[in-house]
Amino acid sequence: MSYLVAHAARVAGLLGQHVALVAASLAIALAIALPLGVLAARRRRAGTFILGTAGVLYTIPSLALLALLVAALGLGAPTAIVALVVYAQMILIRAVVAGLRGVDPALVDAARGLGLSARQRLLRVEFPAALPVVLAGVRVAAVTLVALATVAAWIDAGGLGVLLFEGIHTQNDDKIVAGALAAAALAVVADLALRGCERAVRR
Amino acid sequence: MEPPPHPTGARVEFRDVGVRYGESAAAAVAGVELTIAAGAFAVLLGPSGCGKSTLLRTINRLIEPTSGTVLIDGVDVRSREPTLLRRSIGYAIQAVGLFPHYTVARNIAVVPDLLGWDAARIAARVDELLALVKLEPSRYRERLPRELSGGEAQRVGVARALAAEPRVLLMDEPFAAVDAIVRASLQDEIARVHRELGTTIVFVTHDVDEALRLADRIVVMNAGRIVQEAAPDELTASPANDFVRSLVGVDALTRRLALQRPLVER
Hints:
The complex is a heterodimer of chains A (203) and B (266).
Chain A: H1 2-6, H2 8-42, H3 44-59, H4 62-73, H5 77-101, H6 105-114, H7 118-148, H8 161-170, H9 173-202
Helix pairs in contact in A: 2-3, 2-5, 2-7, 2-9, 3-5, 4-5, 5-7, 6-7, 7-9, 8-9
Chain B: E1 12-20, E2 27-36, E3 41-45, H1 52-59, E4 67-72, E5 75-76, H2 82-87, E6 89-93, H3 104-108, H4 110-114, H5 119-132, H6 137-140, H7 150-162, E7 168-172, H8 180-197, E8 200-205, H9 208-214, E9 217-222, E10 225-230, H10 232-237, H11 242-248, H12 252-260
């Protein structure tokens, strides 16, 4: 704990970087996963392909993916964000597909019969009905990314992983504990905050 | 009696309508020739899978016939853009399908809102409709669907279907999921609404008693075809064949007597 107390400002700075990495990745990942999820839920063959591809990407070990991306994109935060976005796809697309496929068919029938266009049905009826499931996926993705983002330090992308790698190299257990505690706390806070959102929309 | 406050219903015609799902499958609906008069209460009656819901859904183009033509007041429904057509036709289904995140008032306002009515007109219409389906506006306006009983939800469903003053109202087994007492009261209400508004109602059911009670024309269907089309008393008095006879049952005489003393004032 002594490192955490003595270097609170540095830990806070790295925590800030970590949050920025996760938030940026999650935002970009959602922007990609929402349309892909809608497509996958609508078209069976496209769905099989999209979920299959996301599943394969998800199975690549994180260090291997980062190494490959560094070869293509170089070191730094942007490369780490690309990796995190890739990992989040599997979780987010699945959540969008599960959410949309789980919408009560009677609701969709009523919406069609009343004369809502496909777009109006999606935005006014299907997305709101799918939202709790989608948010649950966002929560799982956020917690996963908080953990994965520690590895980003390995490619000079900053974040709390910096403490872990420094601690390992200098055999400074205190640093490792500080980094791990901060990352765990961040994951717990993200989980609780998003659970709160889920409850609010499920209400 | 005062004339209905809204334009009376439209005439609905089926000209040699057939529906086939996929290439090889048997036709869901075949060779349907039927005219439903303006303002009629027509009930499509038959066992499940007989094609009655399919036929109903060709009227608002939820299903496109593979052959033949559906006309509303002489106009081919295919000449109208599907979403616009549907907004001009009421639609109520067994599962109701109220939007769970919308209040009762917003649910009822869905179609007027799509049609671009102004807020004051919509608010007035919502209250008018809640009163029509016997739900106190001040008590129900702001409720969410999950705070409603099954019967109340279906009343809201009917109000939503009628919101934009449609000249045709389609109802697909609307009261099948509620208990017998609530169903009887909903049947009374829809009969009254029909009398008051003069809307053409096309109503699907497998329940013979419901058909006899509500319809002024009953269209009996089996295996995708119309077996008999008749007024309720004519149907019970002279069923066209054994299928209709077995459908209206051995209690035909009792049913005829029941028709003599309707539960709803006529």
